């Protein structure tokens, strides 16, 4: 009887140790805020089967620093060997010095062609024209309801981008944001090249579906801030509210692929739970 009790106690003790270990592990994973790389693969019939384009997508930096000269994030981006780098808005924050963003641009300059659109925080700064000029000084292609044609590894691409919708009210522009978007890109409908759109806001996917773009990349949602693996992709996102449908990930629609970055910013006052900052890598290949 004494032997059974001792055995039972040992089993209970082992179970307790295991539970503590699991809880500690989950706690570490929940609040881990180191950079991770998220890979998505997209196939298209607009590219030959033996061709591919590698895209690095960065969103929502908010001027955050990853090392004194942004060496942590820039080194990780470089390791992905990108053909192009897309910056999908809120690289600057209206309440944080721009120094972190400038260091980031300096660190990635020359890695690959870089394309950028504004997010709401650049608009809220009331310095959006100044911010755009800083990006241009680092050789970045700034897209403002515009597009550019380019060739990457022998693959013709059209890369378009739009300013954040808040630019209409902040700069007192006299056009309707979505109508203007559709009108500007209407002329692309007969183009055969693979078409990519940068737009900070994922919640306007129904507008993007009306265009001829093959791929749309966005940010803004910060991954819904809180995630529960396999159960909840996001708890709350700006302009989408609770349980946002586009918190982060790869969303496949009938005519369009939509990739939403969970962003690379980290604010200790608003911790990300099971939602580490991410560098997104898109491998666009020809269908076989």
Structure explained in plain terms:
With 288 residues, the chain is α/β, with parallel strands linked by helices. The chain has two domains: 1-31; 35-286, Purple Acid Phosphatase, chain A, domain 2. The protein has helices at 2-31, 71-79, 99-108, 120-124, 128-137, 167-170, 177-185, 205-208, and strands at residues 36-44, 52-58, 84-87, 114-116, 141-142, 146-152, 155-161, 194-198, 215-218, 236-237, 241-242, 249-252, 257-260, 278-286. A six-stranded mixed β-sheet has the order 1-14-2-3-4-5, covered by helices on one side. Strand 12 and strand 13 form a beta hairpin. The mean pLDDT is 91.
Q: Notable features of this structure?
A:
single chain; 288 residues; alpha/beta; Purple Acid Phosphatase, chain A, domain 2; six-stranded mixed sheet; 8 helices; 14 strands; globular
Question: What's this entry about, in short?
Answer:
The chain is an alpha/beta fold and 288 residues long. It has helices at 2-31, 71-79, 99-108, 120-124, 128-137, 167-170, 177-185, 205-208, and strands at residues 36-44, 52-58, 84-87, 114-116, 141-142, 146-152, 155-161, 194-198, 215-218, 236-237, 241-242, 249-252, 257-260, 278-286. It is 28% helix and 24% strand.
Architecture blueprint of SSEs:
Elements: H1 2-31, E1 36-44, E2 52-58, H2 71-79, E3 84-87, H3 99-108, E4 114-116, H4 120-124, H5 128-137, E5 141-142, E6 146-152, E7 155-161, H6 167-170, H7 177-185, E8 194-198, H8 205-208, E9 215-218, E10 236-237, E11 241-242, E12 249-252, E13 257-260, E14 278-286
Parallel strand pairs: 1-14, 2-3, 3-4, 4-5, 7-8, 8-9, 9-13
Antiparallel strand pairs: 2-14, 6-7, 10-11, 12-13
């Amino acid at each position: 009887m004494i032997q059974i009790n001792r055995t039972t106690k040992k089993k209970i003790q082992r179970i307790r140790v295991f539970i503590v270990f699991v809880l500690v592990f989950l706690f570490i994973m929940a609040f881990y805020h180191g950079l991770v790389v998220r890979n998505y693969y997209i196939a298209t019939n607009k590219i030959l089967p033996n061709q591919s384009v590698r895209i690095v997508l960065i969103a929502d930096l908010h001027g955050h620093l990853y090392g004194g000269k942004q060496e942590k994030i820039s080194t990780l981006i470089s390791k992905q060997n990108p053909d192009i780098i897309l910056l999908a808005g809120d690289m600057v924050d209206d309440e944080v010095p721009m120094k972190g963003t400038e260091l980031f641009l300096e660190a990635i300059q020359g890695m690959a062609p870089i394309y950028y659109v504004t997010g709401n925080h650049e608009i809220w700064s009331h310095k959006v024209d100044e911010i755009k000029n800083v990006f241009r000084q680092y050789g970045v292609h700034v897209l403002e309801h515009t597009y550019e044609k380019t060739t990457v590894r022998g693959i013709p691409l059209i890369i378009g981008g739009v300013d954040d919708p808040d630019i209409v009210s902040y700069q007192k522009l006299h056009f309707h944001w979505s109508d203007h978007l559709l009108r500007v890109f209407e002329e692309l409908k007969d183009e055969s090249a693979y078409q990519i759109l940068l737009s900070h806001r994922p919640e306007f996917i129904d507008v993007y579906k009306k265009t001829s773009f093959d791929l749309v990349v966005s940010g803004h949602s910060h991954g819904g801030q809180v995630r529960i693996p396999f159960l909840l992709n996001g708890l709350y996102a700006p302009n989408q509210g609770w349980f946002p449908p586009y918190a982060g990930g790869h969303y496949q629609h009938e005519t369009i692929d939509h990739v939403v970055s969970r962003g690379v910013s980290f604010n200790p006052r608003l911790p990300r739970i099971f939602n580490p900052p991410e560098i997104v890598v898109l491998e666009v290949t020809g269908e076989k």
